[in-house]
Amino acid sequence: LRGEFFANPRADDGLARALAWGAAGEAGAVVRALPGYAPTPLLSLPALAAELGVERLWVKDESKRFGLKAFKALGALYALHAFLNRDPAPGRGPAVFVAASAGNHGRGLAWAARRLGHRAVVYLSEGTAAARVEAIRGEGAEIVLVPGDYDDAVRQAAADAARRGWAVISDTAYEGYEEIPRWISQGYAVLFDEALEQLGLGGEGGGRGAEAIAPTLVMLQAGVGGLACGGAMLLRARLRDPRPALVCVEPTSAACLLASARHPRGEATSVACSATSMAGLCCGTPSTIAWPLLRAACDAFMAVDDDYAREAMRALARGRGGDPAVVAGASGAAGLAGLIALCREPSLAGARALLPPRGARVLLINTEGDTDPEQYRAAVGGRDDEGGAP
Ligand SMILES: Cc1ncc(COP(=O)(O)O)c(C=O)c1O
Fold first, then answer.
1. Strand bridging mode 42-44 / 56-61
2. Is 332 in the pocket of ligand 1 (CB under 6 A)?
3. How high is the pLDDT of residue 92?
């Protein structure tokens, strides 16, 4: 089984809209006011769309975000801004912000702290790819390498922060820690706001342009669900006619949202997560703020194997048939991986009947570029015009 699909029996748009805690409003203003800000490109890939048999295919290319190769700084930037509004830095010295990270969140946090004149300390598993460690250090953060895995890094970061009075900026929520992850998801929502604007569907509060073509299917890759939550929140609030189907995509080896959807009462469910090339999605426990919203907002939950991610990376890299070439890391390509599986996986015929890709207008988010260049080269190869055709 290389791909799984579960139609969500609890999808409820009214509830999703009621649960959504605000659109990208303030976060959008904060992000757009940053000197040097520019929206990331929204690319149209007609040749790949034709190969897959979908009507349109757009990729919002977050590998271009702030020169950081991933979308994550959107969340950290807004969270630090909101945090400092609530708790201004004591005295004249810089505040210290701490996070554990698989790589991208730490880099985003380090960058945002520096842009706002503060310090960041980032805790990483000692197994983290060297390129990711160096990229975070390059943003001026102090790095702490922790023996063990990501969860060990989380525990160590929390313990050290409590002892030293540092502020933890985590991208996942748990009981008693929800305000900051909510700000982070609101920051992520800004990328969806940009995408709607680029599609001619009006920005925040804006109208619908004459040329507007709305997506009918949006693939949202997820680790703890913070990104998918930001997207679902904005898209359910703003797109009603047509109403896009929202599909959450996870790696098979870390599909905690899929497991939660399958839970008899739809309760958040943890899974043991084993290694996947989709490092940014390797999370075993849903965020407590993301899950209730995704449970109401998503039409389906999918899981795909690393093989599909690799194939999606290659399809994006080749830029065949006049399509622009897109540099997507494994987590970045996960939305396309889910789409390819939905179009083709033999065991998903039932899913295709429920959610026919044929004729769909699909929006994907390339959430990261080659954040691990070695892995990227190994997946895509020196030449990208052989094989891997979907
Ligand atoms: C590249 C990339 N894509 C997607 C995600 C998923 O975000 P979330 O954990 O909020 O679901 C992450 C998380 O770190 C990531 O790094």
1. antiparallel
2. yes
3. 66
Q: What is the dihedral of CA 148, 149, 153, 156, to 10 degrees?
A: -40
Residues in CB range of 253: below 8 A, 6 or more apart: 273, 274, 275, 276, 282
202 φ/ψ angles, rounded to the nearest 5 degrees: 80, 140
What are the helix (H) ranges across 97-178? 104-115, 130-138, 150-164
Q: Which residue has the tokens 């990331």?
A: 40
Instruction: Evaluate: CB of 221 within 6 angstroms of ligand 1.
Output: yes
The larger pLDDT score, comparing residue 288 to residue 94, is at 288
Burial of 265 (0-12, 13-18, 19+ CB in 10 A): exposed
CA distance 127 to 132: 11
Written as six digits, the tokens of 9 are 């029996």
- End-to-end CA distance of the chain, in Å? 17
pLDDT of residue 93: 77
Residue with tokens 């943890």: 270
**Atom 2 of ligand 1: nearest residue by CA position:** 280
pLDDT by residue (tens digit) across 254-282?
999 999 999 999 999 999 988 899 999 99
Q: Cα separations (Å) of 46 from 53, 200, 276, 316, 359? A: 10, 18, 30, 12, 13
> Following CA atoms 65, 66, 72, 73 in sequence, which dihedral angle do they give, to the nearest 10 degrees?
-150
In short, whether 104's Cβ falls inside 6 Å of ligand 1 is: yes
Q: 101 — phi, psi (to 5°)?
A: -155, 155
Task: Please state the atom number of ligand 1 nearest to the C-alpha of residue 368.
Answer: 1
Helices (H), 269-370: 290-297, 306-318, 334-344, 349-354
* 87/257 Cα distance (integer angstroms): 33
Name the pTM for this structure. 0.95
What tens digit of pLDDT does each residue of 67-120 get?
Answer: 999 999 999 999 999 999 988 866 667 899 999 998 899 999 999 999 999 999
Q: Which two tokens stand for residue 322?
A: 């006049």
- In whole angstroms, give the CA distance from residue 104 to residue 279: 10
Q: If residue 29 lies in a helix (H) or strand (E), which one and from where to where?
A: helix 25-32
